[in-house]
Design a protein that fits this description.
This protein is α/β, with parallel strands linked by helices and 665 residues long. It is 35% helix and 17% strand. The strands form seven sheets. The protein has an eight-stranded mixed β-sheet, sandwiched between helices. A hairpin with a 2-residue loop joins strand 7 (196-200) and strand 8. The longest helix has 29 residues, at 625-653. The radius of gyration is 31 Å and the shape is elongated. The relative contact order is 0.08.
């Protein structure tokens, strides 16, 4: 961008900090009125210095919204936080202009003159905005300033500050009230001072009571700001008529899409919008709403959001996304006197911290937690769920590699399992088929195909190939996104050059369960494999019994600590309660990082992108069918290894010189 002395954008605020007054002019004089008319114009229309322009929202934030900010004195490493007014920072310049363009639109020439690094695809305006960000970028302050400006400058306006949990709503509402108190308390009165008809922690309304002719009436602007919490009240926005809606920490919403759809009509009139919704998600505060947030963030046009070119994710399939605020913008210690970020310096500093954590931390999840809170790109921020024990950093790197090498797609061959004229089960290639995505959509819910990554070896011994299956309970369902997920896993063997990897998959939900079970049966026979299935749904046992194929099903594993005291007794398969899942998570985590003979970790041999996405997004409360199927593969692998070790132990103990006659000697 064109850089000028950006301190001029804050000259009114600096005047207040110096004299505790915004103007020395006497109230009621022309000078006093002219000053506040000038300020009102800048707040509503923006302000230009030396050919560089900021929005009115940005101007209001810089000059009228005190924040706690880091103050460094001298060259000391220790800093303090003091109440002051914000400085101009380039990251805020990007955000406020992006918000303005989303709502009001902008001409092509004017847009180019702003020199934003944010590459906005459509400049017509009339759009909502979805924003992803790293931690501690001051957005609760910026959001509070947007809410207060709406409250102060629009009569009868209604601003909603929404969150799933009350703590997020309260945090922003507290700042709105603090800003309003600041403008109400300055010694020299301003046109921004407002009496409050309602003055509550989560609801303020401007106005006052006046008695006229013995009748009490309500006067004033009657604008209001309301804080809403959706955790215990999904219909919290019902009956509201807002002009601005701010949704804080959207990744914590268990019902984000439903909330968006419920609020959206109140901001619309035909093809036009009457108000704007801004949705925020912070890395590190993503939980139940992660999947919904990701879908909305990477498909903004489907939700009437501003579409921005995805320049942040180095390797990605999504061309468009929402706005993103990375860790290397507005990073304390890497901002020059004009508020310009030293991007490379900030990146280098963050990379050093990551390398130290990777090398020194005994808890491998600490690196993941740090990256998700201090991300370089949206993929890092919003692809990691709270409670994920898997090596997300490494999995993301592998995903990037797969997306950067399109030829790797050919590793997986799509097709179906058929029976030839001789009665032999064969694989038939069919490139017209497509795999089910993650998260699954209504369009491909009932799709799916067999994918072969490595053909079975000829005359494979029984047990070389094992399988894991997470089935589903009902025939065609319009209410469930659960899929049947099945993987064939090749165990390591001295006789074969490859091993410890997935060699085939089938993920889908055909019209009937029997169709699904038949595909599974054919793949198992094709690989001469043995299957461990999640047995809470046991229809596969009946199906295989009817087909005389029970020999293909593995018995319930016995090695797990979580199953020692279980009351569940089923001959085939394994159930998957919380304790079992937690134990097998650790085994799967270790397997992902385990290296083969060449020193290459197992996760690098996963070519199923949708499985990788599930592993990256995983938490114990979500629906991760592919991950469960892989867990069952690992369970069976460990069980078979344990049985083999015990057999060898029995043979050794049965040795002639180990018998009782010789033991005491």
């Amino acid at each position: 961008m064109k850089v000028v002395n950006t301190s001029y954008f804050s000259e009114t605020g600096k005047q207040f900090l110096k004299n505790k007054l915004y103007t020395n002019a006497i109230p009621g004089t022309l000078e006093h009125d002219a000053f506040w008319e000038r300020e009102y114009d800048r707040i509503m229309n923006g302000y230009t210095v030396g050919g560089m322009q900021i929005t009115g929202d940005h101007y209001f934030y810089l000059n009228f919204c005190p924040i706690k900010r880091v103050i460094q004195r001298g060259n000391k490493k220790t800093v303090s936080k003091e109440l002051s007014l914000p400085d101009f920072w380039d990251g805020d310049y990007e955000f406020f202009w992006t918000r303005h363009i989303a709502l009001h639109g902008i001409g092509e020439k004017e847009y180019k003159g702003l020199n934003l690094s944010t590459r906005i695809r459509y400049l017509e305006g009339g759009k909502h905005l979805i924003c992803g960000k790293s931690r501690r970028k001051g957005f609760s302050f910026k959001n509070a300033s947007l809410a207060l400006k709406e409250y102060l400058t629009k009569k009868n306006s209604q601003t909603l500050i929404c969150a799933f949990e009350e703590r997020y709503t309260k945090d922003t509402m507290n700042k709105v009230i603090e800003y309003s108190d600041h403008l109400n308390s300055i010694a020299n009165p301003s046109p921004f001072a407002k009496h409050r008809l309602i003055n509550q922690a989560l609801h303020i309304k401007a106005g006052y009571k006046q008695t006229v002719g013995g009748i009490e009436t309500t006067k004033g602007s009657k604008s209001e700001v309301i804080g809403l919490t959706f955790q215990d009240n999904p219909d919290a926005s019902r009956g509201k008529d807002p002009s601005l809606v701010i949704i804080e920490e959207a990744g914590t919403f268990a019902n984000l899409k439903s909330t968006f759809r419920a609020i959206q009509p109140s901001l619309s009139a035909g093809d036009f919008i009457t108000g704007q919704m801004i949705i925020f998600g912070t890395g590190g505060d993503m939980d139940y709403g992660t999947i919904d947030f990701n879908d909305m963030y990477y498909n903004p046009e489907a939700y009437d959001m501003l579409a921005i070119e995805n320049t942040w994710d180095e390797e990605q399939n999504q061309d468009s996304c929402g706005f993103f605020f990375p860790v290397f913008l507005n990073k304390e210690g890497f901002i020059d006197k004009n508020g310009m970020s030293d991007v490379q310096g900030a990146i280098d500093s963050e990379m050093t911290k990551r390398e130290v954590l990777k090398a020194k931390s005994k808890d491998k999840t600490q690196l993941n937690k740090y990256i998700v809170e201090q991300p370089f790109n949206p993929k890092e921020a919003f692809s990691i769920s709270i409670g994920n024990v898997f090596p997300v950093y490494e999995l993301n790197l592998h995903m990037n590699w797969l997306e950067a090498n399109p030829n790797v797609d050919n590793v997986g061959i799509r097709g179906t399992m058929d029976i030839d004229d001789s009665g032999k089960i064969v694989f038939v290639k069919d490139d017209s088929l497509h795999e089910c995505k993650y998260p699954v959509t209504d369009d491909d819910k009932h799709a799916g195909c067999v994918v072969i990554y490595e053909q079975p070896v000829e005359n494979a011994e029984f047990g070389l190939y094992i399988a894991g299956l997470d089935p589903y309970a009902q025939d065609k369902s319009h209410y469930s996104n659960s899929l049947g997920s099945f993987y064939i896993y090749k165990r390591e063997s001295l006789e074969h050059t490859t091993g410890n990897r997935l060699v085939a998959s089938y993920v889908g939900r055909p019209d009937t369960i029997n169709q699904f079970n038949e595909v599974i049966r054919r793949i198992l026979i094709f690989y001469n494999g043995k299957l461990l299935h999640e047995n809470q749904i046991n229809n596969i046992v009946d199906y295989f019994r009817n087909k005389n194929c029970l020999y293909l099903l593995a018995e319930t594993p016995t090695f797990m600590k979580a199953t020692i005291n279980t009351m569940v007794r089923r001959t085939y398969g394994s159930h998957m309660n919380k304790d079992i899942k937690r134990e097998i998570e650790m085994y799967l985590r270790d397997w992902l990082l385990e290296e083969n003979r060449e020193g290459i970790p197992n996760y690098k041999f996963i070519f199923d992108k949708w499985l990788l996405k599930e592993l990256i997004m995983y938490n114990e409360d979500g629906n991760y069918d592919r991950v469960i199927a892989l867990m069952l593969c690992i369970m069976l692998k460990i069980q078979m290894t344990k049985v083999l070790i015990e057999k060898r132990k029995d043979i050794i103990e049965d040795d002639f010189f180990s018998r009782k006659l010789f033991k005491n000697k």
